Amino acid sequence: MKEYDLIVIGAGSGGVRAARIAASYGAKVLIAEGLNYGGTCVNRGCVPKKLFTYAAQFKNDFDTAKSYGWEVPEKISFNWQTLIKNKDQEIERLNNIYKSILEKNKVDRIDSYASFKDSEIILINNEEYKGKKILIASGGVCNKPAYTAKNKVLTSDDIFHIKKLPKDICILGGGYIAVEFACIMNSLGVKTTLVYRGGRILKSFDQDLTNLLQEEMIKKGIDIKFSTNIEDIIESIEGLEIKVQQGLSIKSACVLSALGRSPNVDKLNLGKTDVKQKKNGAIIVDEFSKTNIDHIYAIGDVTDRINLTPVAIREGHAFADSEFGNNKRSASHKNVPSTVFTDPPLSTVGMTAEEAEKLGYKVKTFKTQFSPMKYTFSDKKPKILMKLLVDEKTDKVLGIHMLGQDSPEIIQSLAITITAGATKKNFDDTTAIHPTSAEEFVTLE
Ligand code: NDP
């Protein structure tokens, strides 16, 4: 039986980082991946989604260009196949980069699924491997409710590969994936309906921002059906029929289900170990990503802590530093910035007012709403909303929230101020760059 210092299960962003760093400290490492190198982010998530978002943005840009004097033909067209072909090429390039990172660092690779024979032994292609330490980094999978026409309903895994754009689409859910794809599809000219059981999309985000985002999405032509519960989805002549509790059914050529994701544990055979899991299957770990079994660790979406790529990467790096680099440390889960890549994008770092108040803070809110200068000549004026939440007692900035163009870039930089414990006075003492949208953050009164 082959023995390793570390066996990593899953070559997503987190697993690859952990494997690379552990190997750089001299550990003998094996990584097993049954699907694509780079995991969800590279293959079925962040990367292709961002490329689709860029494709979608051109719709606004063509409209705005006219107001600056550009002659744009009345009928512009979009070729889905070109986008898919270029996207696939880019992903293949990234897959190869991931593999070569592992090769360069002398990490052994097996392109197959791994499972536990028992707490000590890992089975890959029916062969046994022993790892002094085992890291589970198997990620997450899309939830797929048991509708009658379940096999015709797409998930975010499928939408990146459809052969042609449908004439209309019905998207289920009100979370990250649902709203991002609603904006992408709508901008690419697909008649888009969003079906959500709640009253406010992205319900854990700042309410002013989500209210404005909803307004902007509706203004762009997205039909959002709130407080709508799905009973079943069946096949019909037009495509699919979504039967809802609240009355008339919705017919659509295509349905994308974005009803959350679950920890990817099915193939691991965790029953052969005593690893403790939450009700939803998530592997329970401590702050150092260690399970209840001394030599088994888990990072990323399979632990269902904060399900974002940069978090998994930091967890993987901290694990490798701690266990192989003689530098015990944990990845911080505090003040993690994030963006929902909608149109306009919604970006945030730190607490919402509700979270801060629950913790006993007295919150002072500074906010401003305006339309960016770029749209001066245009009759379509997308809005920007910026909010700074400040602790009244200490003047410390608790949360920064922004809906609007460039918010991912702006909030990424401003996240540093929260990490550094900046006060509102620090913002006030900072000179503006004029004219920009971001300058509003240093001139808030
Ligand atoms: P989310 O958890 O964000 O949203 C799931 C949505 O589905 C919610 O609106 C939820 O409703 C609804 N829902 C769940 N179960 C049901 C049900 N049985 N019936 C009806 N509605 C239901 O999940 P996503 O799939 O959108 O994304 C998964 C995760 O992936 C995100 O949480 C995020 O961590 C990550 N991600 C990050 C992105 C980014 O950083 N830009 C992009 C995409 C994904 P309710 O609100 O009522 O609970």
Task: Give a description of the structure.
The protein is α/β, with parallel strands linked by helices and 445 residues long. The chain has three domains: 204 residues, FAD/NAD(P)-binding domain (3-Layer(bba) Sandwich); 110 residues, FAD/NAD(P)-binding domain; 99 residues, 2-Layer Sandwich (Enolase-like, domain 1), CATH 3.30.390. It has eleven helices and 21 strands. The model has no long low-confidence stretch (mean pLDDT 97). The site of NADPH dihydro-nicotinamide-adenine-dinucleotide phosphate (NDP) has 21 residues, from α6 and β17.
List the helices and strands and how they pair.
Elements: E1 2-9, H1 13-24, E2 29-32, H2 39-44, H3 46-67, H4 80-104, E3 108-110, E4 114-116, E5 121-124, E6 127-136, E7 140-142, H5 156-159, E8 168-172, H6 176-187, E9 191-195, H7 207-219, E10 223-225, E11 230-236, E12 239-244, E13 250-252, E14 255-257, E15 261-263, E16 296-298, H8 309-324, E17 338-340, E18 346-350, H9 353-358, E19 363-370, E20 384-391, E21 397-403, H10 407-419, H11 424-428
Parallel strand pairs: 1-2, 1-6, 2-3, 6-16, 8-9, 8-14, 9-10
Antiparallel strand pairs: 4-5, 5-6, 7-15, 11-12, 12-13, 17-18, 18-21, 19-20, 20-21
The structure holds NADPH dihydro-nicotinamide-adenine-dinucleotide phosphate.
